Amino acid sequence: MLAETDVVVVGGGLAGLAAARRLHRAGVPWRLLEAGGRLGGRVATDAVDGYLLDRGFQVLNTAYPRLGTLLDVDRLRLGHFTAGVLVRRGDRLDRLVNPLREPTGAPGTALAGVGSLLDRLRFAALATGCATLPKARLLAAPETTTQTALRRAGLSDAIIEELLRPFLSGVFVERELETSSHVLAMVLRSFARGRIGLPAEGMAALPRAVAEPLPAELIDLDSPVSAVSPGRVRTQAGDIRCRAVVVAVDPPAATALLPTLPAVRTHSYTTYYHSAPEAPLDEPILLVDGDRREILANTVVVSRAAPTYAPAGRHLVATSVVGPSAPPEPTVRAELTRLYGRSTADWTHLTTVSIPDALPAAPPPQGRLRKPVALGEGLFVAGDHRDSPSIQGALASGWRAAGAVLSALRTGS
After folding, report:
1. For the chain, how big is the Rg over CA atoms in Å?
2. Same domain for 38 and 181?
3. In terms of domains, do 275 and 356 share one?
4. What is the largest CA-CA distance in the chain?
5. Confidence band (pLDDT; 50, 70, 90) for 413?
6. Is the peptide bond before 365 cis (omega within 30 degrees of 0)?
7. In 3D, which of 388, 395, 396 has the Cα closest to residue 184?
């Protein structure tokens, strides 16, 4: 069977959905093929016994530029996290917050024992520069690794090792801080400008909202694609003839479908979900390990930000580990007892979610972050491996790939 359409989008994650939205808005005939039984790709939520368990700890940043193009963020009913972090160092918990978001927390942040006051002032200056300078200027700066950039900002080993490495390892999904300084600049920019939160119905509400305006009859679930070539997409049900193909799948699958595409290294991430009868913290704030044990990346009481994530009378704790070798749950529980400073014996382990290809690696050189999406002969590629490794990168790349398709269709190239 040989069907026809103008554009076939392969992959129903955020990048593919963003591409379909732009094509649909332009009135170009399209069809989306998703190999799995749901939309959203790596952004998914499982509802289990009254808990909302995202496929790995993920958050939404309201400063992501592409969000406003695609959905009304207010409809997600975000529950927000504290704009700061708790650092465990021995018997002490230090609370550092963004004083612009929480002015009353400024004195405590200034007096915190993590690094020196000069460290904290220098980091504040770095974050402020990323938030206020033009994006083009930030991306035109000499590029290096995140670790080198932090040291060039004058930050001491103490604040890097006790605060920034554990915090950023959860953001970049890698502990070596090899991620490009350009990616670091965009991350600090978004954290300074936006608020971090979770949709009341789980992170899966995000792809649902992006997909909502799209006609269901143009989306085929459980439709894996075995091959793409100029003007043709091969599926189990037959070939589809088209004028353009947008491949919007994860990096390993993209390389399999587009052999000329350079392989992209990815990072692994594991999240442990526990149910607790009482919340170990009174606020929705990220807790990191300043004792440099490097077993856990972070832990947070998710239900303090979004109470809908847990049934009445219970709390949901999400704990994340970076790397392919996830420790056994009893080891994680012991670390949680130390970090929170209270017993976890009455906690229930709900599940462990491991994601082998959680985030594409982004070492320098990344340039201006935007990698080519047009491969020639009507083939296009989208995904956060073509932009910044983030939800914003996935949405932006899909939108950009669709724009390149529209341009090619208009010019006949």
Report:
1. 22
2. no
3. yes
4. 70
5. low
6. yes
7. 388
Residue 40 DSSP code:
B
One domain for residues 189 and 168: yes
pLDDT of residue 210: 98
* Banded pLDDT at 2 (limits 50, 70, 90): low
Q: What is the dihedral of CA 172, 40, 379, 31, to 10 degrees?
A: -170
B/e letters for 339-358, b = 16+ CB within 10 Å, e = fewer, are: bbeeebeebeebeebebebb
Residues 26-63 pLDDT 10s = 999 999 999 999 999 999 999 999 999 999 999 999 99
Asked whether the predicted pLDDT for residue 3 surpasses 80, the reply is no
Check which CATH number belongs to the domain holding 392 and give it.
Answer: 3.50.50.60
Domain that holds residue 310: 45-113+266-360
Asked whether residue 250 falls in the same domain as residue 378, the answer is yes
Q: Which of 337, 360, 383 is the last residue of a domain?
A: 360
How would DSSP label each residue in 240-278?
A: EE-SEEEE-S-HHHHHHH-TTSPP--EEEEEEEEEEESS
Rounded to two decimals, what is the model's pTM?
A: 0.95
Name the band, by pLDDT with cuts 50, 70 and 90, for residue 166.
very high
Instruction: Give the model confidence (pLDDT) of 234-246 as tens digits.
Output: 999 999 999 999 9
Structure tokens at 345: 């014996």
Could you tell me if 292 and 151 lie in one domain? no
* Residues whose CB is less than 8 angstroms from the CB of residue 11 and which lie 6 or more positions away in sequence, other chains included: 32, 33, 34, 35, 41, 247, 248, 249, 253, 382, 383
Cα–Cα distance, 323 to 173 (Å, whole number): 7
Give Cα 30 distance to the centre of its chain. Answer: 27
Q: pLDDT tens across 349-383, in order?
A: 999 999 999 999 999 999 889 999 999 999 999 99
Cβ neighbours, 10 Å, residue 393: 27
Does pLDDT of 104 surpass 90? no
SS3 for 354? strand
Band of residue 1 on the pLDDT scale cut at 50, 70, 90? very low
Locus of tokens 């770095």: 126
Residues 306, 355: one domain?
A: yes
Q: 299 and 152 share a domain?
A: no
